[in-house]
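I am going through a labmate's work and have reached the protein record below. What it holds is a sequence and that sequence's fold in token form. Please read both lines and tell me whether the tokens look consistent with the sequence. Do not assume that whoever made the record got everything right. Thanks in advance; the entry in question is below.
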Amino acid sequence: MYGYDKLLKDAEYYSKKGVRIESIGKSTQGRDIICFAVGEGGKPLVSTAAIHARENASAYAVLAQLRRASASGEGFTRYFIPLVNPDGAEILSEGIRRRDEGLKKWKANAVGVDLNVNFDARWGQGKQNVFYASGENYVGKSAFSEPETRALARFTEKVGAGMTLSYHTAGREIYWYFFQKENYARDLRLAKYAEHCLRYRYRRIDSDCESAGGYKDWCVEKLGIPALTIELGNGEHPLSCEDIEEDIALNVGLADALSRMINA
């Protein structure tokens, strides 16, 4: 799994390679949420992962994109945030160490808020949303109640993101829709392109609204930018890096390609 110690080591390593490093904010327990920046100019693309603790393996897809971007030294601005939920990563690590099935299935942050239902996008209206602290689906006391979601939202607005990619596990699916009308054709085109590249299926979730308040949802509804949630791999949580090796290989060039598309 990808933990906070590895994140700090990667930050040290990539800073020596000339990659721009910054903390976009702190987690509930005071850990840095670290961002790696590569490229200059254009509409920035933001890739994030591991907002859900048990989906921690998704971090490796973003790191693979970072490696490719940093090696090429070319392209429009791209931001890579591999560990949005560093406290959750530590909870998962403890669950694996103790063989605690409850902690191994944990999605939330350190206080039991599912960060991917804590954004201000029809907050609390999803069928799966719950209103008490839990390992999953708890929306929090209010939209943006958590420092992690506030930090990610502030950063996305600050850099003027032109598109976001959110990596999760599992199911090999692409989610792109959140009640948009004006930008429907634009966003569908990008989802279809991702489907072509990844050989995943894209899905439109609207009237059912099983979940709401996600980062992708907020980007689409509040910022009016295209945003994809990409589910890597298949199998039971938590998946390992080895479980999604094929998915990582398919996704490694996607950030570059989508960055070119939104800047065309």
